[in-house]
Design a protein that fits this description.
The complex is a heterodimer of chains A (about 375) and B (about 325).
Chain A lengths: L5 H26 L4 H13 L2 H26 L7 H18 L5 H30 L3 H24 L21 H7 L13 H18 L1 H11 L1 H6 L4 H28 L10 H11 L4 H24 L4 H17 L1 H18 L1
Chain B lengths: L1 H17 L7 E4 L9 H16 L4 E4 L6 H10 L5 E4 L4 H7 L8 E4 L8 E6 L1 H15 L4 E8 L2 H17 L4 E8 L8 H13 L4 E5 L3 H11 L3 E6 L10 E7 L1 H11 L6 E5 L6 E3 L11 H16 L7 H4 L8
Parallel strand pairs in B: 1-2, 1-3, 3-4, 4-5, 5-11, 6-7, 6-8, 8-9, 9-10
Antiparallel strand pairs in B: 10-12
Helix pairs in contact in B: 2-9, 5-6, 5-10, 7-8
The chains are: A mainly alpha (about 375), B alpha/beta (about 325).
Chain lengths: ~375, ~325
Amino acid sequence: MDKLPRWADVVLVPLICLIIAFAFCGILIAAIGQSPLQAIWIMIDGSFGTTNGLGYTLYYATNFIFTGLAVSIAFQASLFNIGGEGQATLGGLGVALSCLLIPWPHWSLALLGSLAAGAAFGAAWGFLPAWLQAKRGSHIVITTMMFNFIAYALMNYVLVNLLRPMGSMDPASARFDKAYNLPKLGDILGLVGIPFSNRNPANISFVIAIALAVGVWALIWHTRLGYALRAFGKQEKAALYAGIDPVKITIYALLLSGGISGLMAVNAVQGAAHRLVLNSVEGAGFIGIAVALMGRNHPFGIVIASILFGFLYQGGSQLAMGTTIPREVIIVLQALVILFTGALPYMVQKPLEHLFAKRGGAK
Amino acid sequence: MTLMKRLLGASAVLALSAVAALADPAIIYDVGGKNDKSFNEAAFNGAQRWAAETGGTFKELEMQNEAQREQALRQLAEAGANPIVMTGFAFGDVLNAVAPDYPDTKFAIIDNPVDQPNVQSVVFTEEQGSYLAGIMAGMATKSGVVGFVGGMDIPLIRRFGCGYAQGVVAVKADATIIANMTGTDGSAWNNPVRGAEIAKSQISQKADVIYAAAGNTGVGVLQAAADGGVLSIGVDKNQNYLHPGQVLTSMVKRVDNAVYEAFKSGADLKPGVFVMDLAAGGVDVAMDDNNAALVSPEMKAAVEDAAAKIKSGELKVHDYTSDNTCPAGQF
């Protein structure tokens, strides 16, 4: 018995990682002469204490659910897509073009248009690296990362030269028609009588993200394509022998992954900013990697991990306002949590396995 | 589900208690960062001056990226900060959307006129101050080539460059002006390495006075100019002290005064657009011990003469943003 019970793997490992991470954060905050307990309290109160703060937490979590699912779906096929940032950036362009160029009669249709455009643009940005990997063997980690930079440069060009309204100095598109604003989470919860603040960007995309998580779960474990993805990820040669085309499956995986990344823009661009700005992704593409790792590539785990990272983002911005902790230190704090929860679970896993093995032996 | 209910219950209580928060003023710095030795730091100094004089406290926030502006504004407004001052044109669009949601909160924005009943906009006539800096550059240059390094390529920064160019050609009609911009997005304000590269390239093209209007990026320009043995001109804050004897002057823009005045008037902040020009002391060129050796009496007389003429209206410096053209060169 050298394996952990499932509950320990899913709950205990992330929890211990989190505690270690917070311990290090506490030391860091104490080292710069601030109170760690007060800082933690500001973060928790700021992100869960009010429905407004909770709204921001869920808004960020929504972004991370999309990008986390995107990373996980490619990961099922053993493809490490770190291009979520660029794919979501392009998704933003798709959403903005759909909202700016097409006169939608109603927000719901605009939403459908944005979903389609965001997914299409994101998938298109994932296609080329996938093709290069499948046909030419160019490593997907390198190509998807390089495509992030290309996406950023492209966005810069498009915003400054094409989408910037006349007379504006800001590299951002014009505001979308107010009629396309998505229903806020507050409005939706208000319908069923739950009071929830409306002054935060949380919107219907959160519901879409949850539905998508269920969809991804069904796709991965209950469809033929999901089986092919997993088989290809576990053992490429066996999959090939079983008649799974590696070129097709690589491209499908990245199209799905890029498309889901692109959907993030529905939340960030149409749902929150109502216009396209530079850096509309705010690093969510990279957070998605940590989210997928921490969520063990399972949609349910990804939703939970996303809410944790939403808390980190929102708590971090509260920390910036409520204390004199400089922004650089806040970034270090966020990075510490990512490091421990995303990258170092094995550090915790091994000793835990020993512990459980001993207890099992003693019985 | 019960957890959800508990959270919601607790939040209702907290929402009520948050209203009673003290009305401290707040300031939001743009992506260049509070310690950019230039624009944002000038704003910080104004806030500090207010705090030192009144013993009050203020909230401050540094923007981490372009996308978080709206959240920052809303959170400060929710927290009861009043007035809220933001440094930088880039807040304009967001402020236009946020201000109506908080009618009891006063906002002040620097560099971008925003037309809302609870917003004060402070704009500066950078072309006038830059014109004076241009006069000094035109008289100081030996090679007849002067440089200009802008931050982000926006009409506002071209206004700096155009005023400067007009000043240069006013005293040296055959001077060559090399103008470069650092970039097209917000990171152009915070890229000293790129600033130094541009300055070096201008020095290799024989420029011997370089004017940086680029926030924190300018720190790299001034450093490269000092290393390359040529003169530089600082911006926004008096930057003469950065390299004593090597910075010809600084085009100071009294962002600090704007912030100080806004904080001082508190909740009584007057809405509307306020133009801080040379006559109002909004812009000027810095003269102090650090650049005294560089400024000849003739130079000083020429600057004072031009300043007097601008103040009296006899001399009009063309404002690039009025028609997006510059009479003194291509920008």
